[in-house]
Amino acid sequence: MRNWCIVLLLMCCVSVGAQQIVDRSAKKRPEWYGTTRQGFLVVTGVDSDLQKAQQKTLNEVKLQILQSVAQNVTYSNEMMTELLTQNQDVQTTTSFREQGTTRVANLPFLTGITLSRAADSYWELQRDKQSGEMQYAFCLLYPYSDADYQELKAQFDELEGRMEKVVSDAEAAKDNIADAETIGETVDKLTTAYNYFIDGRRRSWTKQTIEAYNALYSQMAIKTEKLARAKYLCRLTLGGSKIKCSTQPKFRSECASDLKCESADGEFILTFDDSDCIADEPNSISITLRLDGHVIKSQLRIDR
Known about the structure:
The chain is of the alpha+beta class. It has three domains: 2-144, no CATH class; 160-216, no CATH class; 220-301, Sandwich (Immunoglobulin-like), CATH 2.60.40. Helices cover 38% and strands 29% of the residues. It is built from seven helices and twelve strands. The chain has helices at 2-16, 50-69, 77-84, 94-104, 146-173, 180-196, 200-214; strands spanning 19-24, 40-47, 120-128, 134-143, 220-228, 231-238, 241-243, 250-253, 257-264, 267-273, 284-291, 294-301. A hairpin with a 5-residue loop joins β3 and β4. The chain is elongated, with a radius of gyration of 30 Å.
């Protein structure tokens, strides 16, 4: 973490040497500019727009804090390659930092990191001596003590454990689904975990689990059982085994009328009037069940 900050500061010092200062927020640079300070992060963001430079600086603070507390995270191959080459060529870390920033900006334990908490700030409007390009360099002195580190590390570890448990619990429960609505609810939780994870390994793990759950819908079928004339029991099965379902199917028929459906402990009782159904004709009722964007269909042959 400290080495990384030093590299950033050196970059800042070298680049400013090739710039002409057109405007600045103070008559002279603050004492902390271009230095490292115990218990603080010194970070700079650059952009042609001052507000965007401020946001880049704040995102950089978040990313550095994340890197300090997330040392146990294994990043995806392309990210890890860029991170490992930072001492040889700092430019190769650009892609990693951009991808990391977009994912960490809204992490719950980082939402308290704001510009208002900064100890000091300073900006310069710089003009490149060769190209004439104008850009703002926004510098921030942000407090980050050992106590801050310990607090955020605890929050991070708790959140990490909770998100990993979502995926591991889903994996363990996949072959024992008792309620159809559980599948959609689990996919929603898995999607939240997928969007949270930064590293490629766990994102891939979560994506595969989501795909496994979505594949369950193709294993569903609607079975019917005649209870009496114009009265049938309808149940949903998964892989041949009965599962409960609270979402009522839709029924449609060319001959049967007055179709009524009542829920019965996760199953459905269908009653109808079959007086217009002609004997020896292929009389039937189509059944359609929609679950989380997936459609399960069946055909009930009316047996008079």
